[in-house]
Design brief:
heterodimer; A: 85 residues; mainly alpha; two-stranded parallel ribbon; elongated; B: alpha/beta; Peroxisomal Thiolase, Chain A, domain 1; ten-stranded mixed β-sheet; three-stranded antiparallel β-sheet; 15 helices
Chain lengths: 85, 481
């Protein structure tokens, strides 16, 4: 799952939603642990496999606007968390 | 363009009004669906989370909306804003008022030409008393209020929608149109009447605050999102002329501009063009409130013990007039548009809406004092996971300035403070789309505190399932030299 949202809190919530289930219990994924590997589109793992010109054209301006350090930290914390027993 | 810069149309006045409608909140799209899917336990929670009128009046973003506080003042107020009421807040400001539900139900009845809205005697008595105290309505014919009185305990007619006070007491009902017309069910008629009444309220306020004769208005452009019509032309009707009638603009007609949340800026540009061309002299752009969006983020608010802040219908009205050589100009030579070919990335959208109109005038991004973007109140959107919409917009415009070499990356954070503002507008669809800031900007542009403001709106055209595209329009407003 690749996320593109700009806000760290929102990214973390979406990451949580597609791994452990909707933390706000307001949507259909409440209590549904999909366990998907989740990345943000600006993370190096995604950037290095993306077509550079497409990335520049479609993502670059948004990336400048984003607080990517905080976003990466949040999404990694969800991705690298051991699955619940 | 002929006649030089002084010939641009001018902004003559702006009104911003609210109607606090906690009893109607249950008929917002989200609350209505949630209540239908399991309302027995939800309804008491919803009612317990409703705000009083006094709380809605003293809510800092609402005080900004009607002009008693500057948007930037919200940065200095303690958060959450809903816990920190404005002391001695008043229900009227320089741009308009915050109407109580008791008065607004009377306005709904005044808006109703087809005996659709029926209210209890007590409800009508309250509405009459409140409207007779209101300078906008006290001199109007309120006799219609006395008709359509119902016993609220009587059985509902087929297809009718009951009306309730915030505590759940039945106070009347809204009837349907033709029994076989899915475009005129009671909930749709209520939605349309709510938009008509709140839009007419904004127009009446505008004419009143400008000290004008309402008959001086030539034309009205509605920019709301309600679908008025019947089964043969769902959404094909218009509210603008109906609002004009209700606001006493007897010599005007009008039409509606439909473009989702982008419509207000489309409409403002069209109003300017009608004035500039000489077709009309005084054109009002008006947006009424969106009943469907009441309580839209309620689940996020209930989950976080935040009161239901989406409890107000909002209206805005703007008067555009001809050049008078000394006023605030609508720069029709600095219009930005997101075209079919523009592309959907943030870069493409902001190049079209920010770079293109400024480049045409040889201006830099930093030459614009303020950017009015989608001004959704973040205290409503953040708890529901929708993020801080204006902040995202400001960071993207700042990034464009970085790419153009106007600022460094380390200046992105500051751009929101220097060229933006906190969101202060209720999540009423088209209403947060930039234009409410025009009310604040107008006196500042007149006094010279501001030189230029760019108004930017975007619309989610894809929601209608007719295209995957979004839409966007922008226009520069400046101070005549």
């Amino acid at each position: 799952m690749i996320l593109g949202a700009a806000e760290p809190d929102y990214v973390e919530m979406m990451a949580e939603t597609v791994t452990a289930g909707d933390p706000t219990y307001t949507g259909p994924l409440a209590g549904v642990p999909l366990g998907l590997p989740v990345y943000h589109v600006t993370e190096p793992e995604i950037r290095q496999v993306a077509d550079d010109s497409v990335y520049r054209d479609q993502i670059e301006l948004s990336e400048i606007a984003m607080e990517t350090d905080r976003i990466w930290e949040r999404v990694r914390s969800v991705r690298e968390r051991p699955p619940a027993a | 363009m002929t006649g030089g810069p002084a010939a641009f149309p001018t902004i003559r006045g702006v009104s911003c009004v609210l109607a606090h409608t906690p009893g109607l909140l249950r008929y917002g799209s989200k609350p209505a669906r949630e209540l239908a899917n399991g309302g027995a336990t939800l309804l008491p929670r919803l009612q317990a989370a409703l705000r009083t009128y006094e709380d809605a009046v003293a809510y800092p973003p609402n005080q900004v909306y009607i002009g008693n506080l500057a948007p930037e003042s919200l940065w200095d107020r303690p958060e959450p804003w809903w816990r920190h009421a404005v002391p001695e807040a008043t229900d009227h400001g320089p741009f308009g008022g915050i109407m109580s539900e008791g008065a607004f139900l009377g306005l709904l009845r005044l808006a109703d030409d087809f005996d659709i809205v029926h209210l209890s005697r007590d409800t009508i008595g309250t509405a009459c008393r409140l409207l007779r105290d209101d300078p906008l309505w006290r001199d109007r014919d309120l006799s219609r209020l006395d008709k359509g009185v119902v016993d609220p305990s009587a059985p509902l007619p087929d297809g009718a929608l009951p009306l309730h006070s915030p505590d759940g007491t039945r106070i009347g009902y809204v009837g349907r149109g033709h029994a076989e017309d899915p475009s005129q069910t009671a909930d749709i008629l209520l939605e349309n009447l709510a938009c008509k009444a709140s839009g007419a309220l904004a127009m009446a306020q505008l004419v009143w605050q400008l000290g004008m004769d309402a008959a001086e208005i030539d034309y009205v452009l509605g920019c709301g999102e309600e679908a008025v019509g019947d089964r043969y032309q769902r959404g094909g009707g218009s509210l603008s002329k109906a609002m004009a009638e209700m606001a006493g603009c007897s010599l005007s007609t009008g039409s509606d501009v439909k473009a989702f949340c982008c419509a207000p800026v489309h409409a403002l540009i069209l109003a300017g063009a009608l004035v500039q061309s000489g077709v009309h002299r005084s054109v009002i752009v008006v947006g009424g409130g969106s009943l469907a969006k009441l309580g839209m983020k309620m689940l996020g608010h209930l989950a976080k013990n935040v009161p239901l802040l989406e409890d107000c219908l909002a209206g805005v009205a703007i008067l555009v007039g001809p050049a008078d050589g000394s006023s605030v100009r609508l720069r029709l030579d600095a219009v930005g548009k997101h075209t079919v070919a523009s592309g959907g990335s943030a870069g493409a959208i902001y190049e079209a809406l920010v770079s293109a109109p400024l480049d045409r005038l040889g201006l830099r991004i930093l030459d614009v004092d303020k950017y009015a973007v989608e001004l959704h109140n973040p205290e409503i959107t953040v708890p529901a996971g929708s993020g801080n919409v204006p902040r995202t917009n400001y960071r993207t415009i700042a990034s464009l300035a970085v790419r153009r070499g106007e600022i460094g990356r380390d200046e992105i954070d500051a751009f929101e403070r220097t060229h933006g503002m906190p969101g202060f507008v209720p999540t009423q669809g088209h209403i947060p789309a930039a234009l409410p800031y025009l009310a604040h900007a107008l006196p500042l542009l007149r006094s010279g505190s501001l030189e230029r403001v760019l108004f930017i709106a975007k619309g989610s055209l894809f929601l209608g399932k007719m295209t995957n595209m979004a839409d966007g329009m922008s226009v520069l407003v400046d101070r005549a030299a």
